[in-house]
Task: structure prediction
Amino acid sequence: MFDHRKYSPFPALRLTDRTWPDKQITQAPDWCSVDLRDGNQALINPMSVEKKARLFQLLVKLGFKEIEVGFPSASLPDYEFMRKLIDEEMIPDDVTIQVLVQAREELIQRTFESLKGVKQAIVHVYNSTSTVQRDQVFGLDRDGITNIAVQGAKWLKQYAAQHPDTDWSFQYSPESFTGTEMDYAVEVCDKVVAEWQPENGQKVVINLPSTVEMSTPNIFADQVEYFCRNLKQREHVRISLHTHNDRGCAVAAAELAVMAGADRVEGTLMGNGERTGNMDIITMGMNLYSQGVDPKLDFSNIAEIIETVEYCSELPVPARHPWAGELVYTAFSGSHQDAIRKSMAYHDTHELQHWDVAYLPIDPLDIGREYDAVVRINSQSGKGGVALVLERDYGIELPKWMHAELSKVVQKATEVTGREISPAEIKSLYDDNFETVAEAWMLDGYDLHNEGDQIQAEVRVAGHKLQGTCSGAVGALCAALTDQFGCELEVTHFDEFAVSKGTGAKARACVGVKLDGEQHFAVAVAADTSAATLQAVLTAFSRSSQHAVVAA
Result:
């Protein structure tokens, strides 16, 4: 039965003097990727050593300086991968690997065996401290859980001392930190830190896991601020975060917790991980980037990242994934497309220092996306988007009054198929409906003569001559067509402009005519504006089924 009364609200921490709401993130935290451990253990098919190596190389390329590579005491593939990294010297000098281990001596011993010969490493030990785990899983009180943690810390010191050539860092996680009483979380961590003596130079990380996301992000931030305030040797310890996405707020929780005093963030690319996943480092990193903060990670080739993650995890990246998804820089809505087109033109014209474009929080080019993906056309798209595709992909700039006419043609096609239409298909529809000329209406040549305030035009079409007189060349051609066919003809829209400059320059003319009460539109490109205009009128006129051929 779907009954909310089965659950109780998570208790808020009464931190009335919290300071984090007034803070702003001005620099990136230390990052630690846990893709190869937490991400891997959540996969249906865990990564092979080959896939782990490929993902590791990507993480290094992106700029990660701390990478949790596995749980070598619990998994033979993880152990083998650890040895591969060390024996084949795959770890750069500026990268520190991290391994996870439970606070059990035999597992700690095997962990240090797997790390033999490594230049620097973080050994990450953990045990659960939450009330539900203490009461229901382990059946231990606070003292019993504390003893496990302190003993684990002692074993790390003991086995690390046997390998003095390695630069060791120690990390402790009170697993399920969010479900632990805050006074006790501080107490157990104080005792672990005291065992390691960071004041004497030992590098120590205390990691605060939201192992299962249990509350709103603001409560987690309160917990972190409380912890940072009360940890005895805070100045000697890096405070790390490890948030999960059970409530969909892993990134928000990490961001607020950094404001609350944390120094470091663990997460994965694309948020892969147990259940709903880990905190997505790409999302948080790009959030910083979009605010003018250097994330200290390079996401400029998002396609390569997606390809590698999908290959190694065998999981697809959703098309709507924040920042990275295929469709996040794509507008189908007509009003959005028009706003993007106008905003980008304004941006270029005014040479704005900072990016400020409607509906695009960042420049897609920054992460390797092309502008051809920004505007895509389906039955919901408007006239502005269709026109932008022609201008962007084919250099065909149309007057605004033609946008609606082109859009009608394209929309009709998309409504018939019910699918997205490609730029090539839009170009084909444009050609067929506006620019393609029947051979019988192809302009062969023309002569224009001034007679006072009138222009006498002789227009040659498919071997035939049309003659007319009016105040302008277009009017003269219309007079000739009216006389020839006994019709009512009026030019309702007209624009002409240069297509190119210099030798061999061409002109484009766009016209709309009302022929016997029906509206027709056409575009023509020719060597000069007069030829383009005359051809456009002829093409528009020929759209009427009644005038297929010029009479002799």
User: Anything to note?
Assistant: The chain has three domains: 29-299, 334-435, 439-542. The longest strand covers residues 489-498. Residues 334-435 form one domain. Residues 142-160 form the longest helix (19 residues).
